[in-house]
Design goal:
With 428 residues, the chain is of the alpha+beta class. It contains six helices and 22 strands. The strands form three sheets. Strands 1, 2, 3, 4, 5, 6, 7 and 8 form an eight-stranded antiparallel β-sheet that branches. α5 runs parallel beside α6. The N and C termini lie far apart (71 Å). The N terminus is likely disordered.
């Protein structure tokens, strides 16, 4: 009888993932970008569960179900083991899930009677880029809290592409509200941006509403997106010109040399194989800026070029197309630039490659409108030619992935869900 029981148990272990034993595959989640449905505080964010430290942890908001934490493995991977080290606030019921795109999830393992401590799921056979722990029932009255979540397996996409780095971008950010207001969006997009933990951050103008005074920057923007000001490369929008102290006065006082690294409100910098150009579209009619841009493009030695400013040449939103950008587009197109990022209209939109006259062409520039950083959304009004995707009403950020030879991105909502995934583009 005992032999039969042991045989039955053995068969069950082979049929369903277990939580014992060890796996030989390498750890592939350490230090990878992580997001979560919530964090109890800024010191208990998602990244702590993937930092390799036994003393730091992620903790969700207390007393709320469901909650989740996920990690971006960087490329498709075969996942064979997930080891979870719970803090006292553990999950009684949860699912281990995997996804290729961060939107559609497949369950790898499921727990319905957890008791905390350590859960070691081995013998898994999942494939995907994203792994998520989705808690559905708390084991305590608190939230969910993990000291460490370790994912083991083999990267299916090989090593990261040469020169790979991540950038988070958004425009139209800090409305005059704070986290104490449940309808305030910029604390939520800032939390998401912080959890992604990119190489640096880009803002596409209208960083602070309504008149962008220095007092407003300090009261609102600084409390959220200001947490990573040192890694931010901003540009001004039209609201930065409304300051009673003078156009861009509060903007310059707040960002200082970060926004004026070359002594002007426009500048450029390099990262890996990319040349980034930050422009002030409030003064596109001034010869000094266009002359500077011509010289900057002529001096550039990087094969890939991205530019960003506030007013988009093309937009399906309330402001619509803004021809003020067309001369700049002509210069960038002549220099074979690859990507333009804008704000101003409060929605997300991506366009197929096009020339300055709006003609679709493989040699054209890809434009993204990313004005969903926190200001009140605008509706889509008149869909423009070459517009491929439009989302209004969902706050979020652009998560851009650059390599030595190309780029792509996802639009991630403030709920942590991927709302759109771009094609993969090669540099011209």
């Amino acid at each position: 009888m005992l032999t039969g029981v042991l045989a039955l148990v053995g068969g069950l272990l082979l049929a369903w993932p277990g939580r014992a034993g060890a796996a030989a595959d390498p750890l592939i989640s350490r230090g990878r970008p992580a997001t979560a449905s919530s964090a109890e505080s800024s010191s208990l964010e998602a990244a702590n569960a993937f930092d390799g430290s036994a003393t730091t942890r992620w903790a969700s908001a207390e007393g709320k179900d469901p909650q989740w934490i996920r990690v971006d493995l960087g490329a498709g991977a075969t996942i064979t083991r997930v080891r979870l080290t719970w803090e006292a606030a553990y999950a009684k019921a949860y699912r281990v899930e995997v996804s290729d795109d961060g939107a559609t999830w497949t369950t790898l393992a499921e727990e319905s009677a957890g008791n905390g401590a350590t859960d070691d799921w081995t013998g898994l056979t999942g494939k995907g880029r994203y792994l998520r722990i989705h808690g559905t029932a708390r084991g305590t009255t608190y939230g969910y809290s993990l000291f460490e979540a370790e994912v083991y397996g083999t990267p299916g996409g090989g090593p990261p592409p040469a020169g790979a780095f991540t950038v988070v971008a958004a425009g139209d950010i800090a409305a005059q509200c704070t986290a104490s207001d449940s309808g305030c969006a910029h604390p939520k997009t800032a939390a998401l941006a912080r959890q992604i933990n990119p190489k640096f951050y880009l803002t596409m103008g209208d960083n602070q509403y309504d008149d962008a005074r220095i007092a407003d920057f300090r009261a609102y923007y600084d409390k959220t997106w200001g947490a990573f000001k040192a890694r931010t490369r901003p540009v001004p929008g039209n609201h930065e010109t409304y300051d009673p102290a003078g156009a861009l006065a509060g903007y310059k006082a707040y960002f200082g040399s970060i926004a004026y690294p070359q002594g002007k409100s426009y500048y450029s910098f390099d990262e890996a194989n990319w040349h980034f150009i930050a422009l002030d579209s409030n003064s596109f009619d001034q010869k000094a800026q266009t002359d500077w841009l011509k010289a900057d493009l002529a001096a550039n030695t990087k094969p890939c070029v991205a530019a960003y400013w506030h007013h988009p040449l093309y937009s399906s939103g309330g402001h619509g197309n803004d021809p003020v950008s067309k001369p700049v587009w002509k210069l960038l197109y002549g220099a074979q630039a690859d990507l333009v990022l804008n704000g101003h209209d409060h929605h997300y939109e991506r366009f197929a490659p096009q020339d300055p006259d709006g003609k679709a062409t493989a040699s054209g520039i890809v434009e993204i409108v990313g004005g969903m950083g926190g200001a009140e959304p605008y509706p889509i009004e008149e869909v423009q030619p070459n517009s491929q995707k439009r989302i209004s009403g969902q706050y979020g950020v652009l998560k851009l992935e650059f390599t030595d030879s190309g780029y792509g991105w996802t639009y991630v909502g403030s709920d942590g869900q991927v709302k759109d995934t771009s094609p993969k583009y090669s540099c011209h």
